[in-house]
Amino acid sequence: MSATRLLGGDGPVVVLLHGLAGHAGEWTQTAGWLSERYRVLALDARGHGVAERAPRDVSREAHVADVVDAIERLEVGRVIVVGQSLGGHTAMLVAARRPDLVQGLVMVEASPAGGNTEVADELGRALRRWPVPFPSSTAALEFFGGPSQTAEAWVDGLEERDGGWWPRFDVDVMVQTLREAVTRSYWDEWDRIRCPTLVVRAGAGTIPAADAEAMVARLPQARLVEIEGAAHDVHLDRPMEWREALTEFLRSEGL
User: Fold this and answer.
1) 30 and 67 in contact (C-beta within 8 Å)?
2) What does the alpha-carbon distance between residue 242 and residue 230 come to, in Å, rounded to a whole number?
3) Neighbour count for residue 131 (Cβ, 10 Å)
4) For 3-113+184-252, CATH number?
5) Is 75 left (phi over 0), alpha (psi -120 to 50) or beta?
6) What is the distance between the alpha carbons of residues 119 and 125, in angstroms, rounded to a whole number?
7) Cβ distance 117 to 179 under 8 Å?
8) Which among 63, 99, 186, 252 counts the fewest CB atoms within 10 Å?
9) CA–CA separation, 109 vs 75, rounded Å?
10) pLDDT tens digit string along 209-230?
């Protein structure tokens, strides 16, 4: 199961979904300014953060069900769902399968296109190269390329135990979670989305320009914002441009 964190505010509800190997806390800065107008919630996806560390089921269906359950428990009607990377993929599927719950969708560095499952194995090899346990949070910050907001978010995702700093996830769970997401394409689900949609692509991210262009071409109510020079973690790497893109979308759509 996932874990829900209330990050403050009052008004229409915005649900924030982090990417693979991330955690709800990485949305803290975003929630700070969103909560001026919205009630903001962020989820630790299953296998991440303070959620269940080793869930049996990491399928797309399970992740979608967690978000649907969190929204339904709020009893507030339709919400705005914002997701980055794997969280964006989950947000897309929630919007496609439960349009009664979603009034606005924001996909950040995420695509309906499938991929080669070898990318999951590559991720596993990369995560296993982390020199864990880190001897200190300072050492972890240096490893992640800090000081920066992105590096600090990665450090915040660690936990101190047994004399060192460890990830709050199991690598095998991350690999299987990603494999589940890339085994096929989800263009049919994308074509079923009916709510206003924002696609955010990072200029130095992982989503091909052709994918982003196809997304907005196939969905009349979708718009594309490209943030030049931004890395995959756009909301952390380019926080001002990210804020401008999201607030303009919400304002223009009356959300």
Assistant:
1) no
2) 10
3) 9
4) 3.40.50.1820
5) left
6) 10
7) yes
8) 252
9) 29
10) 999 999 999 999 999 999 999 9
- Which amino acid, residue 61? E
Reduce the DSSP state of residue 224 to 3 states and report it: strand
Q: Phi and psi of 108, rounded to 5°?
A: -110, 115
Provide the terminal-to-terminal Cα distance of the chain, rounded to the nearest Å: 29
Look-up of token digits 């920066």:
148
Distance CA 110, CA 224 (A): 12
Each residue's pLDDT tens digit, 171-202: 999 999 999 999 999 999 999 999 999 999 99
State both tokens at 73.
Answer: 């428990």
Residue appearing with tokens 């196939």 = 218
Secondary structure (3-state) at 61 = helix
Calpha distance 40→9 (Å, rounded)? 6
How many other CB atoms are there within 10 angstroms of residue 223's CB atom? 16
Residues in the chain: 255
Q: What is the pLDDT, as a whole number, of residue 116?
A: 84
pTM of the model: 0.97
Q: Which amino acid is at 98?
A: R
Task: Using DSSP, state whether 211 is helix, strand or coil.
Answer: helix
